[in-house]
Amino acid sequence: MNLVNMNNVSIKKEDIEELKSDTKKLYSFVKTENNGRLFFVLNKLGKLPYDFDDAPLLYLIDHKDAKIRYLAIKNLAKLGKFSLFPVFKKVIANDPSADVRREATSAIGRLRNSKAIPFLIELLKDPDPEVVMQAIRGLLVFKNNQLVAKELKKLKDHPNEIIQDVIKKEFFPKAPKKNSFKHTEFPDFLRNKVVLGDVQEIIKYVPDESVHLTFTSPPYYNARDYSIYQSYEQYLKFLERVFKEVHRITKEGRFFILNTSPIIIPRVSRQHASRRYPIPYDIHPLLVKMGWEFIDDIVWVKPEASVKNRNAGFLQHRKPLAYKPNARTEMVMVYRKKTDKLIDWNIKQYDRKTVEESKVIGDYETSNVWEIDPVFDKTHSAVFPLELCKRVIKFYSFRGDLVFDPFAGSGTLGKAAQILGRHFFLTEIDPKYFERIKENLGFIDVTYSVFNNSKKLQ
Length: 458
What we know:
Blueprint: H1 13-21, H2 23-32, H3 35-43, H4 55-59, H5 66-77, H6 85-94, H7 98-110, H8 117-123, H9 129-140, H10 146-153, H11 161-171, E1 193-196, H12 199-202, E2 211-216, H13 232-249, E3 250-260, E4 263-265, E5 275-277, H14 279-289, E6 292-301, H15 312-317, E7 329-337, H16 343-348, H17 352-358, E8 369-371, H18 386-396, E9 402-405, H19 412-419, E10 423-428, H20 431-440, E11 447-450
Parallel strand pairs: 1-10, 1-11, 2-3, 2-9, 6-8, 9-10
Antiparallel strand pairs: 3-7, 4-5, 6-7
């Protein structure tokens, strides 16, 4: 096969292997082939032989297409030749493509040569945080070098939060909290416990890192008799206080799932406008600040027939500026308690049997759009659907875990937890909802109590 002219022939694996072993043919190929085929071959070169001639790849350093330059650098880096160091430096200094500069920085780091340390330290001042990150990766190989450690520690207050996190993890790790129970365990007095009272007071007596998962929907702003606030700011501060405590009692690296949606406060009269408060978006920065890491946004979609009709007027007059869509969605916002440890660490805290029994079997929702019908209750006007609770529990906890709802409502989370082999801890401030929980959780293994400011919940 004529490998120099393959415009009308598909490129096979053996063709690429031949190009790798024959410098002349590869040189001819890179000089004559169109960008698409060149990109394909460069992307499929794989491991290069120890005697590979880098000349054809060096030829592509000045190619017009940034994608080709990027792959040329990526393949040159596989050779691990310090003689290419000046080439990579030149690319970083002159190439207009951010991706190419980042790959060249990575290539220098992968050389693992102490002679590159001064240049990598200079790159810590680069305006592109991705270049800085690649330089950090290269320097961390030499983190025991006093000069390297000194320069990297300076980045603790770098403007980029990811860089801050990396440096803090490497050089300023937090001392682990000492608990009287393991990651998989929790205080027994919280097991299947339902408490009537103000969660702000109750939660103070819950030990640090007791809960594996919290899933809740806070009371809507000034929409319930038991949740009247003088201002929206006061309402947000209330949520902030509660969720700070939720953060304290959550185990390292575990999840907090918050179901919220914007809410409309009706207008006083026809001469005044109604006001819409974006609760999910206003509470988010407060959660991040207190130590929750944002993971995902799931959109809960309800049938249009089940929600309030907001566009009846617009349907009649069709005048611009007055359009108001029907609010079919609520946000299910997923957060994880910030930690240096990866998810794998959390999983490894469980024995194999528990992990196997907790696996999500069968069909599951693959997207972040969950279409679930709402549920209507004779007592509570904003009930969690059982299906919503079951999904959250299955995706974000293990069998035997403790799940918590500080605003328990009718207790659906407890019911879902029981079905799925988890334990629950619920608090509710409204007596009539507390009684409704008793109806919904009418099985033996539940303890009900009324909070009385005692220092014990037992």
